[in-house]
Amino acid sequence: MGLISRLAEWREGRRLQSLEVTEEDWRQALGDWQVYRRFAASERERLHDMALRLLLRKAVVGAKELELSDQMRLRIAGMAVVPVLQLGLDWYDGWQTLVIYEGPFIAGHEWLDEYGIAHAERSALCGEAASHGPVVLSLDDVRSAGGKNGHNVVLHELAHTLDMRREGANGAPPLHAGMDAAAWKKDFSAAWDDLERRIHSGRPSPVDDYALEAPAEFFAVLTEAFFEQPGPLADTWPAVYQHLSDFYRQDPRS
Ligand SMILES: [Zn+2]
Fold it and tell me: Distance, CA 212 to ligand 1 centroid (Å)?
């Protein structure tokens, strides 16, 4: 590490100490979240440290004059760092801003068709991520994230940002040395086909059919399931669970 980055880290450490966030603050922000409760004390400490560093490094802004409480900032940051808990905050260096809406927001998307004509589509979203930011979240969905249905908009959108670090949103983040990209593709494709069959035949599945919107959605939805409901995911698609565990360097079942 160079002198400049050592200095930056030292300054960040000083600013961290001045924040004075208590255990009770964390309990109020994240105490209802099963993923947080599952972590050992040392992992929680790591999560607290990384979440505060995230809040120092990124802008977390309310849209349309929405005032964000400290409790909500801690909840958002605490959930956001879980995917990179064993990878490091550098994995989020491609974006700088989190924008928070009070509820579902209308996003306008434009695209050119094969004749060069621009089309616009508008739909209500609970979250959105662009490759260089911002990450956009609905506060309603942040509040309900981590409930019984296994949905977590924060994990979902942050998974998209990891996916987009390699060749756009295609359903695979940059894999670590020693991970087998061909096996990843084969096993995720098999799980995709299996999910299609399960949905058509009405059999239970560990994720809902939104995962089949696109490979990028498949990765984001499976990331939610990996952290929120790891047991059913591992039982249904053990190979895919293992790839996710190798990538995130976590095993949420244990
Ligand atoms: Zn998505």
Answer: 11
Task: Tell me the CA distances in angstroms from 204 to 106, 215, 236, one per residue in order.
Answer: 32, 20, 10
Token pair, residue 147, equals 């409930």
Predicted local distance difference test score (pLDDT) of residue 122: 67
Q: What are the Cα distances from residue 82, in Å, to 51, 113, 120? A: 9, 38, 34
Q: How far is the CA of 156 from the centre of ligand 1 (A)?
A: 6
Distance (Å) from CA 209 to ligand 1 centroid: 12
30 and 74 in contact (C-beta within 8 Å)? yes
151 C-alpha to ligand 1 centroid (Å): 11
The pLDDT value given to residue 4: 74
Which pLDDT does position 15 carry in this prediction?
A: 85
d(CA 233, CA 254): 14
pLDDT in tens, 142-157: 999 998 888 999 999 9
pLDDT for res 118: 66
State the distance from the centre of ligand 1 to the C-alpha of 157, rounded, in angstroms. Answer: 6
Q: Which domains does the chain have, with CATH numbers?
A: 1-142 (1.10.472.150), 166-254 (3.40.390.10)
Tens-digit pLDDT profile for residues 51-73: 999 999 999 999 988 999 999 99
What is the whole-number distance in angstroms between the Cα of residue 152 and the centre of ligand 1? 11
Whole-model pTM: value is 0.91
Ligand 1 center–CA 19 separation, angstroms = 33
